[in-house]
Amino acid sequence: MLLSVSTRTGPSLQVLVAWLLALACEAKSPAEWISSRRVVYQLIVDRFASFEDTCGIGNCTGGNVCGGTWEALANNLPYIKGMEFNAIYISPIMKNLPCGYHGYHPLDWTSLNDRLGTAKDLRKLVAKAHQSDIWVMVDVVVNNAGPNTDVPEPMNWTQVVPFNSPKYYHPYCPMDFENETSNEVCWLWKLPDLNESIPFVREFLINWTAGLSSKWGFDGLRLDAVKHMPIAFWQELSAAIGEDTYAIGEVLSQKAADVAPYQYDRKTGGTALDGLFNYPLYFALRDVFVDRGSMWKISGTLNDVKRNIKDPRGLGVFVDSHDLPRFLRSQKDVQLYKSALTFVLSTEGIPFIYYGTEQGDDASPEVDGEEWTDEHNRKPLWRLGYSTEHPLFRLIKTMNSLRHAGVFDGPQEEIWVDDHVYVFARGTTLVMTSNVGKFGVFTQNLPLSTLPIEYQAGGQACNLLARLWAEDASTPQPDGPAASPDVPLCYNVTQDGLTFRSEGGWPMVLVPRNGDGEQPQLIEEVEEHLHAIRAGEGEGGHTSGEAGRGIAWLSVAALCVVWALFEYRLRLT
């Protein structure tokens, strides 16, 4: 811990320190999110960590409140940091209807959801996250209020604060998702649709959202249901938020041309949000790795995104979320999941990983014969456990460590694509993914002319995921063959190019042995681990760069505190 305060110093000093830590590092710009190599762990607070499981109490048709809190989340931040995440995205904080455990059924924008904790708990969470160089992004709901009847109308409007009259809402109409006007004025399911054209509604929502970072110390904002409000609203909101806070929006569409205007409207030249979730790529990844379609789908989608999106670096990349069925619900082959996650954690953009991914959550019903619902997509994590030995936990931790080390910093370029294999470069790093699955075995040649110039003189390309291959091979695999324990680390680059063999559907991250920066050290560390595994000594050693990153976190946090103390003194004077 960077800073601890004895309870004997009194609550006022403790609150001051927590406030200083939260304030110091608040509001990070889009450029800062990108340059600092942020990787985001998305979670639903009610389902991540709890002091008491209350899932069985209540009669909510969409799932009961399970008891997760901000305090319990704060206590479990080391688990998240243990995967090398340096950002979290938490569910909405405003007061919700009694069954709105997820945060998307707002009841009172002026109050916190007291089932998640107090204002003090929330500030402590943000402060504790910042101590570990974990930035905090909060989900924001401004499109609708929560439903409080079984039919769209009549509503008990007086319960909603501050929008306590039907005059603040669009009249009910069923949503036609193919019609732009309907998307913006009709009700999403049974959710009363706020009429942002009314000055009071518009001004409140914009001011409330723009003030979240300064009030709570949040570093970024995730904006819900963006395509259900006009682009002009988001442009005005973005201007109010300012350039110093990264704001990313949800526009659910498979077409990049539909998503693009919400970042930059080429028709008007207007800039809206800093980033958007890359739904076109999400659907391509699901098509390729879940349905095992041709890898050309990824190639076409990435080209489409480049043509339409002004700044792809600000896009959120993901393969799971709270709104969509989990990957393993539809595709049980974990090796395909590993390829999808490797792609997400190495491609251009800001990666988002949904909680439970690291424990292999397949969103299956807990009772045999039970009908599947969204509720199964949001299981309490404590029921799955917090194992740090799960293969997916180890893969995510390794990929995050490589990202922090700058392995995926370079410009992205497509190297090879066919129906089953996709290879791209990030600078000198080569990333190989495939859709062959756990029984797949293939040999792939990449012609010399396709490789980055650093490989042109020959040498070797070394696989930084070889250690994970070997660890899996030394563990019993009841559901399929594992890779050979004698996993090759490096492959020769000849006049014919780079040829490698893949077994068991494993992805690869290849770097030149004579590379720059931390690459030679990373190869050496993997080599040491492989020797230890082959000798039957287990993993051995520690994840690369941990000590250096610890010093970096300490320096950043210390500078933040010094600046906050200076600001605090100015406020007193």
Question: Can you offer a commentary on this structure?
Answer:
This protein is an alpha/beta fold. It has three domains: 40-404, TIM Barrel (Alpha-Beta Barrel); 412-538, Golgi alpha-mannosidase II (Immunoglobulin-like, Sandwich), CATH 2.60.40; 542-573. It is 34% helix and 16% strand. The protein has 20 helices and 20 strands. It has helices at residues 11-24, 30-35, 45-48, 70-75, 77-81, 119-131, 180-185, 199-210, 212-216, 231-241, 256-259, 279-290, 296-308, 327-330, 334-346, 381-384, 391-404, 466-473, 519-534, 546-572; strands spanning 40-43, 87-90, 94-96, 106-112, 135-140, 220-223, 246-249, 264-265, 270-271, 275-276, 316-317, 350-354, 412-417, 421-426, 429-434, 441-446, 459-463, 490-494, 497-503, 508-512. An eight-stranded parallel beta sheet has the order 10-7-6-5-2-1-12-11. Strands 13-14-15-20-17-18-19-16 form an eight-stranded antiparallel beta sheet, covered by helices on one side. The chain has a two-stranded antiparallel ribbon with strand order 3-4. A hairpin with a 4-residue loop joins strand 8 and strand 9. Helix 18 (466-473) runs parallel beside helix 19. The two termini are 31 Å apart. The model is unreliable at 1-24 and 539-573 (pLDDT under 50). It is an enzyme of class 3 (hydrolase).
The name of the CATH architecture of the largest domain is: Alpha-Beta Barrel
Number of domains: 3
Number of β-strand runs: 20
Low-pLDDT runs of 5+ residues are: 1-24, 539-573
Domain Glycosyl hydrolase family 13 catalytic: 42-403
GO molecular function: alpha-amylase activity; metal ion binding
GO biological process, one term: carbohydrate metabolic process
Pfam family, one: Alpha-amylase
